[in-house]
Amino acid sequence: xxxxxxxxxxxxxxxxxTLPDLWRAQPLVTAGLFLSGAAQGLLPAVTVLIxxxxxxxxxxxxxxxxxxxxxxxxxxxxxxLLSQVTAPVTQVLQGAAADHxxxxxxQRLMRRMTELxxxxxxxxxxxxxxLEVLQGGASHRPLNLLSTLVYALRGLVAALSVAxxxxxVGWWVPLVVxxxxxxxxxxxxxxxxxxxxxxxxxxxEAREVNYLSxxxxxxxxxxxxxxxxxxxxxxxxxLTRTRAYQRTLRAQRxxxxxxxxxxxxxxxxxxxxxxxxxxxQAQAGRVGAGSVALVVTALGALRQELSxxxxxxxxxxxxxxxxxxxxxxxxxxxGVQSPAQPRPLPGDGTVTLCGVSFAYxxxxxALRDVTLHIxxxxxxxxxxxxGAGKSTLIKxxxxxxDPTAGRILIGAGDGQxxxxxxxxxxxxxxxxxxxxxxxxFEWTLRENILLGQPQDDARLKVAVHGSGLRGVxxxxxxxxxxxxxxxxxxxxxxxxxQKLATARALYRGARVLILDEPTAALDPxxxxxxxxxxxxxxxxxxxxxxxHRLGSVLMADRVLVLKAGRxxxxxxxxDLLARGGEYADLWALQARQYEEPVEAALSLSASGx
Length: 609
Ligand SMILES: Nc1ncnc2c1ncn2[C@@H]1O[C@H](COP(=O)(O)OP(=O)(O)OP(=O)(O)O)[C@@H](O)[C@H]1O
Description:
Elements: H1 3-25, H2 27-62, H3 69-115, H4 125-138, H5 141-165, H6 173-201, H7 203-217, H8 219-227, H9 231-283, H10 289-331, E1 351-359, E2 365-374, E3 379-383, H11 390-397, E4 405-410, E5 417-418, H12 424-428, E6 431-434, H13 445-450, H14 457-466, H15 494-507, E7 512-516, H16 524-538, E8 542-546, E9 558-563, E10 566-571, H17 573-579, H18 582-606
Parallel strand pairs: 3-8, 3-9, 6-7, 7-8
Antiparallel strand pairs: 1-2, 1-4, 4-5, 9-10
Helix pairs in contact: 1-2, 1-10, 2-3, 2-5, 2-10, 3-5, 4-10, 5-10, 6-9, 6-10, 7-9, 9-10, 14-15, 17-18
Bound molecules: adenosine-5'-triphosphate (ATP).
Protein name: ABC transporter ATP-binding protein
Transmembrane segments: 28-55, 67-85, 151-184, 257-278
Domain ABC transmembrane type-1: 31-318
């Protein structure tokens, strides 16, 4: 099977999926729309016929024959009225249906994003290419498809009815005209299809250009962009890429237009030949002046209708290709998913990892054969050098990814359950987390803490005090102050944001607490305060603390040392120090960083320097 017939079949399937959707969104409006489109389609044929009757009537008048003027004027006024009424009605109906359908499509895209529960899908560049195309089209493709379908119906009715008027000249005339114009139509369709496939191929490049302009314009990059004088480089790069992109499109357009020329010539030959033939027939007295007028207007109208039908067909193909992408996107496997029939949530927060390994897409393993048992209520510090796999362990526990091998079990004894068998939302509701790269939502402080949950005053107070956020609040910054600059809100300091992220975690009464470098942006006093709170908060909860600041490890019952994705040490702080291994080395290294400058300062002051 050729790829074009394959894609025609795909498009037909997409149309069959999309039409019922359009219909369900607004049945009456859609029916009205297609009816008024079909009515409009009859107008060109009516105009051609009125033209013939008028010319025949006038010729008759010149020969002294009677003419039914009232019928002629009636037909003309009727056609004008139909044309004036149907055009605005079609526009109004189209607007109503398209608004509704655009909302419907946007809602489905948003719903899809909430169905994607893991992070795995988001790391596929193809996913972002598809999303770029879909988001870019969501505001206009539904309207475009709808109007294209209506105009295509209008064009089809018009072409058929105008072709039918040519039957008055001879049964073979419409066949010859259509045969002369069909190759041109087919070629034009092919040309437009190429345009779409080029657009899809170039999406990654368009995304690169969008990324460059985001870097140049967005606040989060502004400091580096200015300090390192990046703006001219970004501008140059965007310009070069855009020009290359446009060059390819232009070359393709020109090539396509040139290949249309022979087909244009053929269509001209056929319609010109037919015109010459009818004039010759009139000269020989075999047909009347009205028939010549009919052929002239019908050929013009047919050419125009077929050409706009081609255009509609091509545009419709593009819109349908967009919808095919939408259907594929909505129905693609979504990576991490909640089970259809989840097992009940275990009663306690014991966590067990059995031979867990994990590799990110196309990457070497980030975790290798990790086996670990954390009884409910234990506080475990996880330490290790950059890239050791600490955050990955946390992400698996939150089921942002599933292990490549091994199992994560929640609960103890008979209640122990594989994490994959638990309802994801229910499990995540049991976990509170402060991430290294927590989100800074540009909403009010209160909304940033509640994150959609109902307000509980007592819990909110504990969260605000426990996180140290109390110190951030004052007369000008209250719980109802909007944060961030995008909407003219107040900007918190880095530490202020971190306290807010901590308050968010504290507000969620959770059985498992995850702290991934939770104090990286805090000053020493705030850090001490927050760790005091964490220690109280961790009581009775299973707590995992990822940290590079080994002083904070002292709040943990147990320390895990990760290296290259494996647990290489596991024990109490004092025992690990005594063992003299990796942990003892890291501890000594960090202690020296504090001691040496002090010693240096002391020796400097002793020497009177
Ligand atoms: N989303 C990702 N896609 C591909 N590779 C990743 C991704 N996230 C992390 N990695 C890689 O996985 C390995 C473990 O990373 P991880 O973030 O778990 O380390 P870490 O111990 O938390 O490091 P750090 O102390 O720097 O935060 C690293 O080699 C890292 O480059």
